[in-house]
Amino acid sequence: MPGKIDPFLDDSEYANAMGRVRSLEARLLDAVKLSHMVDAPSAEEAARYLAETEYGGAWEPGADFKDIILSLHKEVARTYREAFEYSPEPGIVDMFALRHLFEGFKTAMKAAKVAQSVGGVAGQGVNPPASALEEARKSLKPQRAVTESVGFGGARADAASRADAAFMIVTSDFLGEDPAVLKEWFMQAATYGEFDDFPSEFRDALNEAFEARSKGAMGSTIDSILDRHSSNLCLSMARKKRNDLLVDLWSSRIDMINLAATLRMKARVERRSRLQSLRGTGAEETEVALPESGGEVAVEVGAGRATGRDLPSAGEGALLTSLARSLIPGGKVPEDRFLAAYGEPWREMPAVFGGDPIAAVCKEGVEGYLAEGSFARLEKEMDRRILGFVKRFRHVSMGPEVIAGYLLAKEYEAKNLRFIMFGKMYGSSPDAIKERLRDVNG
């Protein structure tokens, strides 16, 4: 199970960790260095600015999408391993590592589904055929991005590359294990639904996801199940710690996940309706430019993965049921408020949330979608809200918030570097790259 959380541990126990974190925070890349990288004439020149940092090996001549993703992910994984060493409570680090571990669970579930369908395996307790496992491995291999239209390097390729990095960041239960071995073990367990050796908190989530998959559930449904368990587990740990700021972080994150799911569902349904109208009139589907949602939220936050083919065709009631099942309890905003917002016209959706902070996030997401046909502005606003917690954590003189703030800042720093390096590799303009950057140190 996740590391111990002590609700009565005095904040003074974090004194040593605070000194370590403050020294590490001083090494975070500042806005000036990031700006120099963005303005560099090439990816090679941009990478020179990283030569004397922890990211020195993140780019080498001939590096591709996979190399960059893995290098950045390895650095974040190293940050987590160090945090387990200096944190007086491993559970505080686990609280943030859980999201990454559950992303690994998703990877294993989907790969096992491929292995099962290709190998025709049945029953339990038998190793899958080698050919089936090989086919599953192929499904995890990253793809080279070919266009900028789906993001810097491509949202789909980004997701595939992240799958290749599965289980680099794990909770204290699995520290020291080889990521490749973990991936193989988890994939076999997910093939047959054998989760008895897993901690109980994970076992419940995996059993539910496996049962849904066995009944033919789409990948988006499996993602929603695991997202719900992951978010609720993080929130439960924060409540056990009796830390109001950490509780606020996780409950706010749940609200934003639910909002993203609601907006994306509405956009997908609208898109499917337009496609059906085109088919009904005999028009070519290519005559209308339909909006594509950005991939960043789906990757970092795990929200709104429903696609047109995932949606039921039985009518509005079935659509609302599908959305309701994807919403995560535990946020500040009741789930029925999101269902009510879904039924409103786009521009009237923010008003449903009244004076709640999520209303401003909704407004930004709606305006961005209507103006640009994507949810890039929603993603950036959600990240801005999370980074607001980083700033609040830094104002705490001593306590678990110090570690939490640094872990989040490090993750967003790596995210910024991913934007920059992919933008330089694929010829994006400096202004376009800067628009994607998140303010980690502001």
Write the layout of secondary structure elements.
Elements: H1 15-25, H2 31-39, H3 43-48, H4 65-86, H5 90-119, H6 130-140, H7 155-164, H8 179-192, H9 200-214, H10 219-241, H11 244-281, H12 296-300, H13 316-326, H14 335-342, H15 358-372, H16 376-394, H17 400-425, H18 430-436
Helix pairs in contact: 1-17, 4-5, 4-7, 4-17, 5-6, 5-8, 5-10, 9-10, 10-11, 11-14, 11-15, 11-16, 15-16, 16-17, 17-18
Count of separate DSSP helical elements = 18
Average pLDDT metric: 80
The separation of the N and C termini measures: 36 Å
Which residues form runs of ≥5 with pLDDT under 50? 120-157, 284-314
What structural category do the secondary elements indicate?
A: mainly alpha
Order of helices and strands: HHHHHHHHHHHHHHHHHH
Number of strands: 0
Label the overall shape.
globular
What does this protein structure show overall?
The relative contact order is 0.13. It contains 18 helices and no strands. The radius of gyration is 22 Å and the shape is globular. Helix 5 packs antiparallel against helix 10 (219-241) and helix 15 (358-372) packs antiparallel against helix 16 (376-394). It has a domain at 87-117 and 156-242. Helix content is 63%, strand content 0%. The protein has helices spanning 15-25, 31-39, 43-48, 65-86, 90-119, 130-140, 155-164, 179-192, 200-214, 219-241, 244-281, 296-300, 316-326, 335-342, 358-372, 376-394, 400-425, 430-436. The protein is an all-alpha fold.
